[in-house]
Write a structure and sequence with these properties.
Length: 345
């Protein structure tokens, strides 16, 4: 599976990048050192000293520069070596790659492609932990599995009826009827109405109601989902199209999720979830995060087991079903964009 390089990948939560303390992360098989110098601005450099390939993430911040603590080479924030102890002349090629980096929505985003192509307008509109309209919990999980398998899982919600029968208690509807899939410029949109239902474990109701959920799944692997509970008959009244969330009588939440490929068979999964402030409180957030912990553990068991089976299978092939429309559309988009990058290079 190919991955798009001209895209913004989530490298860390903002608060995980402490000032003057370098942070190591691998994205798309590429080791990266992220640090905040005295200015507090995040910097992302190739995590590999030009001298003897020691990791710069074990280095020391000096102002807004980073010193390798093996033999002391000092790197400016653009990756250029500006000092070599005991040597006046600095070779013109003494530099490491620097990566465009943006801090937004409580995440550190790194552009893995051509720096001149970096477009901050392509950063998906996640909801940050400091958003005043939401009360969010957050976390991350490390997977021993290819990122594509996690993306496929998030693009096909029919698995909720089976993998999450104990946690989300979604019922058979997700498997019996596909959601509505709409193509987007850099992803897909999934929408679903569940009518005349008392809801799942995250949106329980004492009386039948209509529940709406919608998410965008965007390059390179970002899920942004919201929804709410509406009076019975709302779905029919609005033609089963997207409702105005201001009309919801409860259950409005938001989750931002990001899948980051580390190596070919390892990935990091970032997530936040919580209620809109007028639809819940800290206790509600904690309930949702408890559900998420159980559900995401269920996903992890299944996906890592799936990866082990794939690794033992000669020329593994999948047989798509009706629920794979979103998976197919998104993976074709990824392949098309990745191919265009290869042609350009």
């Amino acid at each position: 599976m190919s991955y798009v390089h001209n895209a913004w990948y989530v490298a860390a939560w903002s608060h995980d990048i402490a000032q003057l303390k370098p942070f190591a992360i691998t994205i798309l098989e590429t080791p990266i050192a992220i640090y905040r110098g005295e200015s507090g601005r995040p910097v992302a450099l190739e995590d590999r000293c030009v001298h003897r390939l020691a990791p710069l993430s074990l280095g020391r911040c000096e102002g807004d520069a980073l010193r390798c603590m093996y033999h002391g080479l000092l790197y400016a924030s653009d990756g250029a070596v500006v000092e070599i102890p005991g040597q006046e002349q600095i070779p013109p090629l003494a530099r490491v790659k620097s990566y465009p980096v943006v801090e937004r929505h409580s995440w550190i985003w790194v552009w893995m492609g051509a720096p001149e192509e970096a477009d901050e307008g392509l950063i998906p509109s996640a909801v940050g932990l400091d958003d005043p309209n939401y009360i969010l919990g957050h976390g991350h999980l490390d997977y021993t599995a290819e990122a594509r398998l996690i993306n496929d899982n998030l693009l096909d919600f029919s698995h909720l009826s089976f993998v999450h029968a104990e946690s989300f208690q979604a019922g058979p509807e997700f498997a019996q009827t596909p959601g509505r899939i709409t193509p987007l410029a850099r992803g897909i949109r999934y929408e679903r109405w569940t009518e005349n239902s008392t809801g799942s474990s995250s949106r329980k109701s004492e009386v039948p109601m209509d529940s709406y959920m919608s998410y965008d799944f965007l390059i390179p692997g970002i899920l942004l989902m919201t929804g709410g509970v509406f009076p019975l008959g709302t779905a029919e009244a609005c033609g089963r199209s997207a409702p105005n969330l201001e009309d919801a009588i409860g259950g409005v939440t938001f989750t931002s999720q990001a899948v980051t490929p580390l190596t070919g068979k390892t990935s990091r999964y970032f997530f936040s979830w919580g209620p809109r402030r007028d639809h819940g409180d800290e206790a509600h957030r904690d309930m949702l995060m408890g559900l998420a912990a159980k559900a995401f553990a269920e996903d992890k068991v299944m996906i890592e087991a799936q990866q082990r089976v794939i690794d033992l299978t000669h020329e593994p092939k999948v047989m798509p079903t009706a629920h794979d429309k979103g998976v197919t559309m998104f993976n074709r988009l990824v392949e098309r964009l990745a191919k265009s990058e290869r042609v350009a290079n």
